[in-house]
Amino acid sequence: MGILIHKPGLLSSFQDLGRFGFQYLGVSVTGAMDTLAHQMANRIVGNQTDLATLEMTLIGPQLTFTAPCCFALSGADMQATLNDKPIVLNRPYIARRGQKLKLLSFVTGARTYLAVFGGFALKAIMNSQSTYLRSGFGGWHGRSLKKDDDISLQVSLPDDERFLKKIETKLWQTRLYLPLNLQLPNPNRDTVRVLASDQWTAFTPTSLDHFLSNPWRISRDSERMGYRLEGPQLALNLPKQMLSEATSFGTIQVPVDGQPIILMADRQSTGGYPKIATVIQVDLPALAQRKPGDSVRFKLIDSAQAQQLDHLRQTAIELLARPLEPIFETLRKSIKST
Predict the structure, then answer these.
(1) Total structural domains within the chain
(2) pLDDT tens, 171-212?
(3) Long-range contacts for 284-288 (Cβ within 8 Å, ≥24 apart)?
(4) Does pTM top 0.90 for this prediction?
(5) Is residue 183 included in any domain, yes or no?
(6) 209 & 144 share domain
(7) Are 39 and 147 in a shared domain?
(8) In a domain, 182, yes or no
């Protein structure tokens, strides 16, 4: 028992931090597009950050909790309600058996993440619970959710209203501090920071200037595998034959048409196009919350800055739920495995 799906939303699939170590077999890493929101949702319900969350894109699902649980939402605002009462992002909630969670279309951002205390009862394939949609494995039967899917939770809370109310009150009375580097970016801020690739100087000076000074439009032909960009045509100084190399989340490739592609969570395992830059890790979540039709600009920084920003964010994630830990310890002592 766990959650029963009434409306699946536009694209709802289970994702964790990725399926690492198998790219040499041609298996995509996959994982959450917005790793920040994914990690925050998990931490807010007392989980480690590697457990799968439900990633919901543009239009959210409607579901019923079939067992009591503690849950949280993070990421985009999709006008969520619990039994028709509005709920906020980045707070833990206690759901009773039979209560309905509804998410509608986005207000800001593009993706929202649902985490439950203890995680969902999903089988790990190649050390990951992520759904690899293109190959049809992982997550929930290797696909996005459908109507009448009934997904179990790894653990259930006691179905005792007195106990649930006590936990709910403690959770609500606990203040969480959300530092600026964990907040959803301003939707009007379209700049993401990048590191120059080792092929940076292979591009013409004019192309490098266009890359950094012009806004780029995210094409409608964009998805979890990659964001295609529309803008000035980029060109190499000289034609160059490239050997295929391993890809990474955020790599910006430039194919022969001169229109960049940012590789995203479901990227292919290798790529042979020239690489102009790579989006830094802390700005990938902001990029993942942008939609086709949105614009994006690039700003060049150095690796030392990128590493410092990443360290500060990861520290903030780990500290986020520390005030809640005594409550979650109480829950751990009270749960029964499903």
Answers:
(1) 2
(2) 999 999 888 888 877 666 789 999 999 999 999 999 999 999
(3) 284/34, 284/35, 284/249, 284/250, 285/34, 285/35, 285/36, 285/37, 286/185, 286/189, 286/192, 287/192, 287/227, 287/250, 287/262, 288/33, 288/34, 288/110, 288/111, 288/264
(4) yes
(5) no
(6) no
(7) yes
(8) no
